[in-house]
Amino acid sequence: MSTPFDLSGKTAIVTGSTKGIGHAIAFALADAGARVVVSSRDEGRVSETANSMKDAGHEVLGVPCNVGRKDELENLVTKTREAFGPVDVLVCNAAINPYYGPAMEIPDEVFAKVMQTNIQAQLWLAQMVVPDMRDRKDGAIILVSSIGGLRGSDVIGAYNISKAADIQLAKNLAVELGPDNIRVNAICPGLVKTDFARALWENPEFAEPRIAATPLRRLGEPEDIAGAAVFLASAAGAWMTGQTIVIDGGATVPV
């Protein structure tokens, strides 16, 4: 029986989907019925993830892609269309954070790389898939941001700037694309137990105070984020656009 969360017949691209939050989102979209294209820079992980999803009975394609390279993004979209047809759902999850230290000292080339990978790539992908969505007057774009985009930092400032830009990009694209019934939203996870954030959650000196200050008294799991992506991609989120969903166990609740 169809539900508001049913994605049967939909085609979804999820970047950075071979581990962590992106991996959980890819599986959740597939569980909801979508045909899913998984990608990351690691060709071995792409193949492994695609095979595990196929073994679970899902319709999936794996395409290696470094999102910081426009030609690889174009190949990702082309391969998707060849295999599954027009793109209905885009989840921009891939991101980098190669610098830990004060923004006053970040090398120019590192700052530029963060912005190209975490911001420019999202816009490139949107530009590539929106024609499909406009043709059908329907589509959903989901940008995975971070609560880092809502607060300052003296050590991951460039990353936080890029994540704040994701939030604003969702708002701007929502205004531009809304007349074509294309919804654009952002998700801001808190500290989730992924490889990407391993240095933080495996450090008791950081993690324990963070848990104590979080109302739900635990860190996040990748699966905690995936349900919101299904909501935003499906008919359940049909009248929601330009918004930011914070999923952080309550860590950013003012007290």
Content of β-strand: 5-15%
Relevant CATH superfamily: NAD(P)-binding Rossmann-like Domain
Order of helices and strands: EHEHEHEHEHEHHHE
As an assembly, this protein is: single chain
Poorly predicted ranges: none
Structural class: alpha/beta
C-alpha termini separation? 43 Å
CATH C-level class: Alpha Beta
Q: Would you tell me the overall average pLDDT?
A: 95
Rg calc: 17 Å
The neighbouring-strand order within the major sheet is 3-2-1-4-5-6-7
Please give a handful of descriptors for the protein shown.
single chain, alpha/beta, globular
Give the arrangement of secondary structure elements.
Elements: E1 11-14, H1 20-31, E2 35-38, H2 43-55, E3 60-62, H3 70-84, E4 89-92, H4 108-136, E5 139-144, H5 157-177, E6 182-189, H6 198-201, H7 204-212, H8 223-233, E7 244-247
Parallel strand pairs: 1-2, 1-4, 2-3, 4-5, 5-6, 6-7
Describe the structure.
By secondary structure, the protein is an alpha/beta fold. The chain has a single domain, classed as Rossmann fold. Helices cover 45% and strands 13% of the residues. The protein has a seven-stranded parallel beta sheet with strand order 3-2-1-4-5-6-7, with helices on both faces. Helix 1 crosses helix 8, helix 3 runs parallel beside helix 4 and helix 4 packs parallel to helix 5. The N and C termini lie far apart (43 Å). The mean pLDDT is 95.
